[in-house]
Input
Amino acid sequence: MVSRSSLGAGSTPGLTVTRDGTLTRNGTPYRGVGVNYYDAFLRTLMHPSDNSYRDGFRKLAANHIPFVRFAACGYYASSYQLYLQDKEEYFRRLDAVVHAAEESKVGLIANLFWVSYGVPDLVGEPRINGVNHRVRPGSLCGPIRARCLALSSLSRNLGMEFGNEYNLALDFPDSSRHLPPVNPGLGTPTKRGPHDALTSEIFMDALADLLKPCAA
Output
């Protein structure tokens, strides 16, 4: 078992796309059909005694599902509180999910920031900082993103996603009508503004950041 901490910066995801568009795994053309297992980590993040993901991975393996796509993160800011309070415990719970996948030989597609506003809401900053922290130098989102990007070298990780369906939030002519939800009880601000709107330029720059660990 290769742990998250023991993998070097040069590690790459298990799936690779060749120049001719062929998807390969360990140098061999690969074809597989996986499933969404969105809350495999989120359920234990919110309820530490919930380890039902173990049985979930066993059932997936028994049904010959080769990999799952899961949120390797919180959702609303409220679900990230453990990260601020006890980072080691946060990653211990994530490691336990990864170990369970390893035991069942189920691959992982780690989604690093499922929603675009979870991390910036956590530190009281606008959404553009969470997607691309370089928009505003000194953003507190930067260190959190850097730590989470290290998940690209998780054992059993076949690939990674920056977030879920971010394209649906880009380049609206009237962005004020398409801002993230407001629910202070879950850690959001009481209102949204222009800096919570996203553009393709901001998002593409963020993806370039995501690719750097893979190219190192």
